[in-house]
């Protein structure tokens, strides 16, 4: 008869317990959202420590975010109590990579106090290299090369191993030399970029078997969360550390104790080089692996789970799995789908719902808004400031704090308040106008001596000949621009003026020329900024509003709604989840539709699955019929994902009465395509009305409709029946 389970194991189901207690040998936990994968990992670490199978320092655990690592540390602390000294090696691939690299830096030509470059530093460095090679950075932008580098490093490729085609693709065939020169430069600077935090350790492990052997001896237990989103470099790094070896045998191990947990349906970083196949390869890499499936979901109600399972079953490229929940209370709300007129109404409705929930006693901390594209956040942030609702933006700066928004605002501030030196400094050479440090320093000295703000000082300075001709001409142009814009302040509509400023200054063009992955998002944000001005009378009025928004508290202690992208919501859970913007072109995102293939669309669908499965009690999806995308009002089509939600689990909210409130003229440009509320009614969810709209929108050829794969839903639960396609 087995002894009664200790407290920390008592609540686990048999499969979870097996995953915790099978401490020896390779284990793969492959299971859907909310089945307790992360909880299993945490408990497993506690278990290993409780049984004293290893010292904390002999455990290596990898999480996907630093936040997840902090939470896991906390929970382990609670589970084991104060009994254990020290902590496991617990962090993201990068943070563990740094730790390892610091110990052996000299082996790759670095000192242990090396610095880690941020993106800005990296771009500056690449620009210098391009200049040295006489490569025009208009034709060969530094950011493009930074992206290439990133891609190579994600795949674990060094200058010697990048494919010939790649090497030739950049800088007149100089890709390989540039990569080499870049690494040499980093080494002189005693610096690394993010990719090197894994690539250097990989090189060290490969070139120094004795060091690798030490790590084999050290790490008795290795654990990885979110395994489906590891990229090739991470995989290589992990495989080296998790090899069976003589040193492990000498230490008495008969197998590698590696435990990876993941969900192929939640692989959402393919665009950043993640390879879901790593999960499928596990049993080959670690022969004799125990594969454990968890099928009971502890997070969500049956309706939420049913909706998510139905949606994801449309994907063909999946392993397929069963999920069920015991949360069958008939009181539970269905997943709601709510239509709105435009994004402003969407934000207003969600704001009201949040206030209602709050009045009923729900905490803001338990609510989240998950968006597909970060530009969507702006409308919510503005609305919440107006309502006085606390919010926090997770995984990135708040809308008005983003780089491109701050730059744009700096331009507007200078126009409205010519003495705003901070703003002027920020943009005087952004975009690059050939105003170097020398010229700027001179301008500062000159202005200070004359007791003038910088812009006025500049107007003065360009009259004389203190500056060299090139910077003088550049600065004179800046002065001329600001004169003109200030003059237009009282006569031109402020949104037009704002757009003009960004165009004439070359700022918009700078991002248009930029081929980095973030550039399109930044342009979207700039358009959104201008759109948001529409709600204010004037540029100064708008700037005043911004000052207030910027001041809004963002404090971890206060009760606040979370706003974040779907990508950064991975692994998290909330009582109530709002999912706005379910429209074709936004979600699924246009980029995935343009690619044409199945894989991009399926990744979008997985993202939708991640979104729905974040909800514990309430999931509220919204879409609107008019959205301003890329600065233009477009009438939009409801997302195909809506059609794919099984009807039984969805409640369609009748279109709100506020439609009539908008005169067609006021919004401009959308004309006749006004969404017909009759096509959408509570009783006929997914009626031909939507399909008509889809056909009219020209999406007909790529759109397959809900494939209606049957989701069985019996008393016991919901089973998605997706079978993995033969392509793997
Ligand atoms: P995701 O795929 O979204 O990362 P996951 O599989 O990692 O999900 P967890 O976050 O570990 O799931 O667990 C989901 C929720 O269910 C958590 O609130 C967790 O505490 C709870 N949970 C997990 N297992 C149990 C259990 N045996 N008893 C009660 N609650 C549980
Ligand atoms: Mg998890």
Automatic annotation (TrEMBL):
Indicate the enzyme's highest-level EC class: isomerase
Q: What does this protein do?
A: Has both ATPase and helicase activities. Unwinds DNA duplexes with 3' to 5' polarity with respect to the bound strand and initiates unwinding most effectively when a single-stranded region is present. Involved in the post-incision events of nucleotide excision repair and methyl-directed mismatch repair.
List the protein's name. Answer: DNA 3'-5' helicase
Which reaction is recorded as catalysed by this protein? Answer: Couples ATP hydrolysis with the unwinding of duplex DNA by translocating in the 3'-5' direction; ATP + H2O = ADP + phosphate + H(+)
Instruction: Tell whether Nucleotide-binding is among the UniProt keywords.
Output: yes
Organism superkingdom = Bacteria
Q: Which family does it belong to?
A: Belongs to the helicase family. UvrD subfamily.
Record domain UvrD-like helicase C-terminal: where: 302-571
User: What residue intervals traverse the membrane?
Assistant: none
Q: Which residues bind ATP?
A: 31-38
A GO MF annotation of the entry reads: DNA binding
Name one process (GO BP) from the record: recombinational repair
What UniProt keywords apply to this chain's record, in alphabetical order?
A: ATP-binding, DNA-binding, Helicase, Hydrolase, Isomerase, Nucleotide-binding
- Naturally occurring in which organism (per UniProt): Aureimonas ureilytica
